[in-house]
UniProtKB/TrEMBL annotation:
Protein name: Uncharacterized protein
Length: 58
C-alpha cells in the first residue's frame, strides 16, 4: 500500500523586472509533486526574456 503525505508545502514565486520600456525579464520558481505509485517532488525554474511590441497605429 502506498502512503501519500498530506499538508505538503508547495511554494511558488515570480519576479518580473522591466529592463527597458519594451523589454522585461521574468524568473519563476515552483515546487510540485507527482503522485504515481511513489511520490516524487521536483523544483521547477523558468527564466524568460520578453519584448513588447507597440502598435504602429492607434
Amino acid at each position: 500500500m502506498t502512503h501519500i503525505l498530506l499538508g505538503i508545502n508547495l511554494p511558488a514565486a515570480t519576479v518580473v523586472c522591466n529592463i527597458t520600456d519594451n523589454l522585461n525579464t521574468r524568473f519563476a520558481y515552483s515546487k510540485t509533486i507527482a503522485r504515481p505509485l511513489e511520490q516524487n517532488a521536483s523544483n521547477n525554474y523558468d527564466l524568460r526574456l520578453k519584448t513588447i511590441r507597440r502598435a504602429l497605429f492607434f
